[in-house]
Design brief:
The structure is a homotrimer of 167-residue chains.
Chain A (H helix, E strand, L loop, with lengths): L3 E6 L5 H12 L3 E5 L6 H13 L4 E5 L4 H7 L5 E4 L1 H10 L4 H11 L7 E6 L10 H20 L2 E6 L2 E4 L2
Parallel strand pairs in A: 1-5, 1-6, 2-3, 2-4, 4-5
Antiparallel strand pairs in A: 6-7
Helix pairs in contact in A: 4-6, 5-6
Chain lengths: 167, 167, 167
């Protein structure tokens, strides 16, 4: 069974940088699975910033929804899924059944051979949001993080670019 | 003197589940002290979700304001107070003196015999809220957490369902 | 080269209290470098609260923008910079080049002899803010924390008034 890592933390806490280093430590070259859907220039700028930092050792795959499929298609080398929270956003904005999708993802992990490093965001440590959608989203993100963390061999919480081992 | 535990963390970070396990490990059966006031259907649904997860080993007590009284009345077995942040909300929305209430709670702890596990929320790790009430609330919640943590024998910070020992 | 500490955490998580104790442990008396600009009564009240808690061992310096200058001028004793996040706020609201200022600050650290304890806020662990300025600010705050953490000899994350060692 594949080794599963989860790297979670706040915005700009160094999650992706840490997760990239951990993925390459598991094997080179590696797959980079981007879940971002490019909605506007701001997001395009963020993605370009991340891509510029990564080197030629990475093969990039864009997959906003079907993580089960892309994980099966990239089972020959370590892969980084960046990130679960954007994947959840895509599911919820697309009015998909995110719980079913999350459970299908978790169910698919034992069949994988190559390691998977998941990046995720912690979004539940601020004041309760005013609007219902944001509250539902932060609840879903929290549950998703718990489920993936339970399945993971190792869980890292990043603070100021530094890893704290949680599991 | 009673053993005091504090389990704090973000929304959907697994605080309650961890705190329930810790309470039952201190003794069975146990008391569940719910501080939630049911304002609307959304909150009723959240409470029902929590209750469904707990088993018959729990006696439930609903007490939105007077924690000193309910802790004295349940001093025959371990109890879980879920949660301090909703208690603070009730105090502030009811225009009570929350600092006096918090100090009375802390002053009452040394007289208790049975363990108390408090659940609390971390709400101060997002952007500064726009409105004054939310800023006052997050300040109060932060101070309350500090005070209870100082009085506690053990403090746990939960991330993605996993406990990190802080004290 | 000066010993550099970073104490980061949420609002009312006990960052300043911990940082003050750490600064005095490095030497007495010490300098307190306040970056706050007093905009309104609410902020004045917060500052008065902090000042009341500190004792006569501290010499206070108010410097909202030029940290390089004030660190050079106070290089005879340990100093506490409280805090980097307000400094960043001042730079961004004043439409200064915060990245250039941050890099100048980092470049100045190796020339210092006396220890520096920086206090900073974690602001990236809530829901993505609605407005662009807040998103830019939390990105900048996250990068600034990463850069200072990378330069620091020790990094502390405070939760409920308690220190967690990150580095």
């Amino acid at each position: 069974m594949a080794r599963i890592l989860l790297v979670t933390g706040g915005a700009r806490s160094g999650k992706s940088t840490h997760a990239e280093a951990r993925t390459l430590a598991l094997g080179r070259p590696a797959h980079y699975i981007a879940t971002a859907e490019i909605w506007d220039e701001e997001m395009a700028a963020r993605i370009a910033l991340h891509q510029a930092r990564r080197g030629p050792e990475w093969t990039t795959h864009a997959e906003p929804l079907d993580l089960v499929k892309v994980l099966r298609a990239t089972d020959d080398a370590p892969r980084l899924v960046d990130c679960l929270t954007l994947w959840l956003t895509n599911l919820m904005l697309g009015e998909r059944d995110w719980e079913a999708a999350a459970k299908a993802l978790l169910a698919s992990l034992p069949d994988l051979a190559a390691p998977v490093v998941f990046v995720s965001n912690e979004v539940g440590l601020g004041i309760v949001p005013d609007n219902r959608l944001a509250r539902d989203f932060r609840d879903a993100a929290g549950f998703l993080n718990q489920w993936v963390a339970a399945a993971a061999d190792e869980v890292i919480f990043t603070v100021a670019g530094l890893p704290m081992k949680v599991k």
